[in-house]
Amino acid sequence: MIRVKRIVTATLAVLTLAAVSPELAQAQPSALSARPLANPLSKTADDDRLPPGWQISGTGAARQLIWTSPDPVPMGDARVEFHAGDRLLGRPVAARDRRSFHLALDGARIGSATELKVLAGGRRLDAAGTGAGAGHTTPPPTGLAPAAPQPEGPLPANQVDPGVPGPYRTARGAYTLDSVRLPGFKAPVEMRGTVVGPTNAPGKRPLALFLHGRHYTCYTTTGEDGGEWPCKAGALPVPSEEGYLRAQQLLASQGYVTVSIAANGINGQDGNVDDGGAQARSSLVRLHLARWAQWAAKRSGAPAAVRAVAPPDPSRVLLVGHSRGGEGVNRAALDSLYAPAADQDGYHGPVRWNIRGTVLIGPTIFGQNPAPDVPSLTILPGCDGDVSDLQGEIYVDGTRGVSRGVALHSAVYMVGANHNFFNSEWTPGQAKAPATDDFGSDDTPDRVCAPGTRTRLTATGQQQAGATYIAAAARLFVAGDDRVRPLLDGSGRRAPSADPARVLSHAVGAHRTPAFLPGPGLAVSGGRVCAQVDPDPARACLPPDTEGASPHFAGWEAAREPGRDAVALRWSSAGSAVAVRPARPVSLAGGEALALRVIVPPNTTGTQLDVTLVDASGHRATLGRARVDGLPGTGRTASYWGREVRMPLSAAARAGLDLKRVAALELTPRTRSGQAWLMDAWGWKPGTPAAHAPEMPRVDIGRLTVKEGDSGTRTYRVPVRVSGHGSGQVRLFVPQPGTDKVTVRTVTVRPGRHDLDVPVTVRGNTRYGYDVSHDAFVKAVRGTVVGSHRGGVTARNDDPMPTVTATPVADHVVEGQALTWRVSLSTAADADVMAEFALLPVGKGAELSTLDVTPQWLKDTFDASPAPARPLSKVVDGPSLVATVPAGRLSTDVTVPTVKDGLSEPVESLRARLITYDTSWEPHPGPEFTGTVRDAS
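^ that's the sequence the OP posted. Answer follows.
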C-alpha cells in the first residue's frame, strides 16, 4: 500500500502535483510545507459535516475540497483520488509536503460527507468513519473466510523452463547521452541506460528494453528521499534503472541484448499531466529505440557499453515496463503502430523497429487503452500495496472485441508478490537509496501479505519468479517458442525456476474464438448480467461494501461504465442451472475445448459447476464438471480473479452436438451454496498465431487552455484528433459541470470528420480565482485505438492575486489575552488566499514558550505538548502560523492565545516574519512583526 511515513526533509520536500491540471496548481499557492501549521484552512458551514481531516474552502466556482493527512503520503505509481462513496470526485493536487491534498470542486455536488474517502490504486489512505486516525490505512476487514485456504498442490511442470540460464557469457555497462526535452515538461529528461548482453552469441540478437515506474527520484547518503527533478545539490538520482539486473542477466545469458533506461526526469514532472506521463514515457522509450536502431546500422557510432555486447536486432524487440513504466511501454507499442500527434510527442523520426510483445509488471492503465494487436503478458502481484486494485488486468480484458483478437494477452497472478520488490533498487537491503515494503501491515498483520506468512514471497523469490516469467514472454513473443505458452495462457503449468512462487494464468486472444461474452444482447436466466463498474448494489457485480476487490472490476474515470459486464451466479442449493444465451448462435467448430474464466470468492475451495452446451436444435451435451478454487485474499487484496478452466469439446462431438450453432451455455452448481462470476467463455485450441496490426483510426483528446476574460461568455470546443485509416467506434464520456452526472454515448469516428464534438462555455469575471477545467474522455469500443484518452478545455484565471498585508491588532498584551494580527487583501477574491508567519528566534530578552500558550492551541497548531518548556520558534522544525483569507472576504485574524501562569516573569516576546506566495508558488518574505506579553499582576 502507499504507506504514510513521518520522515520529511527540507532539502527534498517538493511540490508534487497529484494528477490534475497544472492550472489548478498555479491557481492558489499553498503555504503548506513539511511541518505542522496553524489553522491551515478557513472554517465553513460545510466543515461541521465533514469527517476528521476534511475541509472545504472557497465559494462558488472557487470551492475546494481539502484532505490533510497527519503524515506525508509517499510518492508512488497509483494516483491519489477523492471519492464520495463509489463516485470519483477527482484527482487532487498535493501540497509541498504531500500531506495536504486540494481538489477544485467547480460547483460539483459532494453528496453525503460521511462517504468521503481517499483512494490510491483502490487502497484507502484515510480512515474516515472507521474510528482510526485520518491518514492511516484501514485495518483489514474480517468478513471473508477467517484464513487463507490450504494451497493447492503444485501445478505440473512445463515442458520447458524459461528461467534456466542460457549458455552465453555476458557483459554489463552503461551509457549516458544528452538529455532530451519532452512536450509539457519544463526540465530536460535524462537519456541513460544500463546494458547487459551476451558477448559470444552469433549474429544480431533480439533486444529487450526495460522501463521502471514512478518512484522517488533523488536521495541523499543520509537517508533522505524526494521527488523533484533535477536533483538538488547534495542529492543523487535514485538508480531505478539498475533494479532489473537479475532479469537482464537471465535474458542476456539466453542471447538477448537488454537495456534498462532511466526515467527520473519524467517521474519528477508527471504529476500534472492528464495521462500520468504515459505519452512522455512512450517518447523516451522510442528515443532510445531510435538510437539502438542507429547503432545496429552503424556499430562504430555506439557507446562502448553497446559495442561490448552482441549487435542488436531492432526487428525483434520486447518491451518490459514496471508500474507506470508498464503503461509507458504499452503506449510506446501503440505509438509505434499508430503515430501520435506531433505536438504531444517527443519523438518525430521514423519507426525502425518492430515490437513483438510487452511485459507489464504491476502496471497502471489510467487510460484503459491497451494496444490490442501487440501480444502482452501482465504480471499481477497479489500483495501489491501501490497499484493495489491490480488495474493491469485491463490489458487483457480491455482488448476484447476492439480488434481482430489474434494477439495473445495473458495475465499471471503471482500470489504473495508485492509491488516494489520486482525492482531491487526499490527493495530494502538491496537498494542504494531508501526503500520500503509497499504492502505494510500497520497494527494488524495481514494474514496473506504480511512478511513471514506462508503466502508472502521473499524479495529474492519474487525477483526470480519475475525474471522467469519475463523470459517466458521473450521466448514466446520474440523467439516464437510455443512450448512456453502453457505457462501464460491458462493451461495450468508451472516453471520450476519460479518455485516456490505460486503463479496462475489466464488469457484471451491467440486461437480463441468468442463464444459467450457478457454484454448487450446476452440473455441470462437463473443468474443476472452485472455491471463491473456501478455504484448501485443491485447492478454491480461486487457491491460497494464488498471486502476485497476484483482486478477485472477496476474503476476508471466514471462511477458507471457501460459496456463492462459479467454474469453473476448465486445459489443456496445445488442443481439450479444458470443459462447464458447470446443474441445468435455461436460457432465452436474447430476448437478443442471451451475455455471459461470464472471468479469465485477468495479463500473458498471446491466450487463445482457442471458445464453444458445446447445447440440451436435443442440438443444438449454436458462437457464435464469444473472445480474452481478461490485465491488467498483479505479485505486488502484484489483476489476476486478469474481462474481459467478448460472443458474438452469431445463430449459434445460424441453427443452429435452441432458445434457450428451453439445457442446456450448452462452452468449448474453442484456444491450446496456459493457465488461465482462468469467473465467470458471461448472456443480454444493450442497455438500462438502471428499477430498483425490492421489499419485503424486513432483518437487523441487534447487540452485547450483559454483565458476566462472579464465578462460575457465564449464557447470553445474540446480539441479532438482522429488520424489513421478506416472507421471505428469509441465511447465518449462528458462530465456535466456542477453535477455528478456524466453523459455517455458511443460515437463512430473516421479521420477527416468532426464526429466527436464537445462544446464548452466559459464565463468571464474580474476577480482572482481558480482555473476551471471542463473534461472529456474516451475509450475504444471497436476498430479504433486511443492514445490520449483525456482532455478538455481549461479556463485560466487571468485576474491578479490581491496584495496581502498584515497589521497588528493586539501586539502588546498581558497574560491570558491573545496576540492578534490581521491579514488583509487589497480586494476580495473568489478563492482562498494564504500567507504564513514564520516564527523566528527572539534576539534579545525572553521568548514566549510552549508553557505560555494554551495547550489546545499548541496541539491544534503544531501537534505538540507544552512540556518540556521550549521557545515557540523551536517547538517544531521551522514553525509557521498560516493565515487564510476565505474567498469573498477581505481579512482574517491570526491569534496566539496566552495563559496566566502565576509566575513573576520578565516581558516575553514572539517574533515572526510575514511570508506571501505568488501564483507560481514562490515565497516572498515580508516585514517582521513582534508581539510582547507581560505579567498580569
